[in-house]
């Protein structure tokens, strides 16, 4: 086995040299070899101090700018790597040979970049780094860097999933069986598109456009269908997917149902459906444009911080069943509200300081789990002393009680924000509790 692995490493180094001679300087794979050098040392000892030393000296300290970037973007710690290495030995054995093929994709990747340049002549240079992470991304970006998590992006149907926790196994198996390594070039061009886009705004609609545009443009550049199951599913179930997104696009903290999640996180059983939403908007925009090159340019250069520009783009796609204003009003009309406080009237300026709890009533039952309590606009000095442990829901989930320790002659604020939710995850309209205590 050692001879075989040694041969693979030798072949990879030779291919790497050939790749550099061919001029693929913007495609960097050295982190792959460094990882396996560290891996072999780490798996020869049970000494955690030694394991950390090998990881740090052979992988982190020898790492490229891309490795530093992917660790930053995905918050990878040394513990994440060591836990992954120690817990999934069969998985790592099954993925190793595929990752050592990274250099073989140099020509295809360069061709893909040139195809992208043909439809978008203003292409800015970016660098592609093949790294190995700890299962949090198969591809992402940071500024002008494309960062490939090869441990996921280069998996195939032979990659072992049985060591993962039971709740993850089905999703891992589905992903591995899709043989992502066969779509590696398309993934890279998708991520390359992200390096050309303006910074995204973190709400569901902007994320949909950001990801959907990258998928659509990469598909157009490469002339192949999307490999994302969400696109095919969305097109076959367009009305119900769109309707659900229209209901939820203004939610906060609801990203897990639509993006970077497992299929089990939503009622459709398909992950990353937000890709379809943005993809279809991009496709609608492109199809109706007379000048296709200008349409691609407009899609890539959308300014997500310019609300007017985004609203105009969305309107031009004719994707939604109503205007954004109408859809937002529909959302607002469905939101639960706080209707009052049991112990006193809100904004009361003579509250008894001996009151030791505040019970807020809601317009309808909430889910009994999600809560959100923060300082009010005046800050922490006006937030009452309270115990998190003593907070509780009523049996019908229509009220929530907060224990407090009040002082005389003091102004207080407590903000209940929109992390309070119904069973359908509809967020509460924020409610500011504001009052003053009396002398006694």
Number of domains: 3
> In which range does the helix fraction lie?
40-55%
Largest sheet geometry: 5 strands, antiparallel
Total helical segments: 17
What is the global morphology?
Answer: globular
Beta-strand segment tally:
12
Alpha-carbon distance between the two ends: 81 Å
Mean pLDDT reading: 92
Rg over alpha carbons: 26 Å
H-E order:
HEHHHHHHEEEHHHHHHHHHHEEEEEEEE
Low-confidence stretches: 1-23
Organism: Rasiella rasia
Protein name: DUF2268 domain-containing protein
Descriptive account of the structure:
It is a single chain. With 440 residues, the chain is α+β, with helices and mostly antiparallel strands. The protein has 3 domains: 1-196, no CATH class; 198-334, no CATH class; 338-436, Immunoglobulin-like (Sandwich). It contains 17 helices and 12 strands. The chain has helices at 2-21, 30-42, 48-60, 65-73, 78-87, 89-99, 106-119, 150-153, 166-177, 184-196, 204-222, 229-236, 238-248, 274-288, 292-300, 307-317, 324-334, and strands at 27-28, 127-131, 139-142, 145-149, 338-341, 357-362, 373-374, 385-386, 392-393, 399-405, 411-416, 431-436. Strands 5, 6, 8, 9 and 10 form a 5-stranded antiparallel beta sheet that branches. A 4-stranded mixed beta sheet has the order 1-2-4-3, with helices on both faces.
């Amino acid at each position: 086995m050692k001879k075989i692995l040694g041969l693979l490493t030798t072949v990879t180094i030779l291919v790497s040299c050939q790749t550099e001679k061919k001029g693929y300087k913007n495609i960097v794979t050295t982190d792959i070899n460094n990882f396996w050098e560290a891996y072999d040392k780490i798996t020869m000892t049970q000494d955690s101090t030694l394991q950390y030393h090998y990881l740090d000296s052979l992988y982190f300290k020898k790492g490229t700018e891309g490795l530093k970037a992917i660790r930053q973007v995905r918050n990878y710690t040394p513990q994440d790597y060591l836990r992954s290495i120690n817990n999934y030995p069969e998985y790592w054995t099954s993925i190793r040979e595929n990752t050592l093929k990274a250099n073989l994709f140099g020509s295809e990747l360069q061709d893909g970049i040139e195809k992208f340049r043909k439809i978008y002549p203003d292409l800015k240079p970016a660098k592609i780094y093949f790294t190995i992470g700890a299962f949090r991304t198969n591809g992402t970006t940071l500024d002008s860097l494309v960062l490939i998590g090869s441990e996921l992006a280069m998996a195939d149907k032979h990659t072992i999933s049985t060591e993962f926790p039971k709740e993850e196994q089905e999703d891992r198996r589905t992903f591995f069986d899709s043989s992502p390594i066969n779509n590696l070039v398309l993934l890279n061009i998708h991520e390359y598109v992200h390096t050309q886009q303006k910074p995204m705004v973190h709400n569901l609609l902007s994320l949909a456009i950001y990801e959907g545009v990258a998928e659509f443009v990469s598909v157009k550049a490469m002339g192949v269908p999307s490999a994302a199951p969400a696109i095919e599913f969305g097109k076959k179930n367009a009305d119900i997917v769109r309707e659900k997104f229209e209901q939820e696009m203004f939610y906060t903290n609801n990203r897990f149902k639509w993006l970077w999640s497992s299929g089990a996180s939503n009622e459709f059983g398909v992950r990353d459906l937000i890709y379809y939403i943005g993809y279809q908007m991009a496709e609608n925009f492109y199809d109706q444009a007379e000048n296709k090159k200008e349409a691609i340019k407009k899609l890539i250069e959308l300014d997500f911080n310019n609300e007017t520009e985004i609203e105009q783009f969305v309107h031009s796609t004719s994707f939604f069943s109503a205007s954004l204003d109408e859809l937002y009003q529909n959302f607002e009309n469905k939101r639960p509200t706080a209707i009052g406080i049991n112990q006193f009237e809100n904004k009361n300026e003579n509250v008894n300081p001996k009151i030791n709890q505040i019970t807020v009533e809601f317009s309808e039952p909430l889910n009994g789990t999600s809560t959100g309590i923060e300082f009010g606009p005046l800050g922490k000095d006006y937030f009452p002393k309270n115990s998190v442990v003593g907070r509780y829901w009523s049996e019908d989930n229509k009220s929530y009680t907060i224990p407090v320790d009040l002082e005389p002659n003091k102004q207080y604020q407590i903000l209940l924000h929109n992390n309070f939710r119904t069973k359908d995850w509809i967020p509460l309209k924020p409610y500011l509790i504001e009052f003053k205590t009396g002398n006694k």
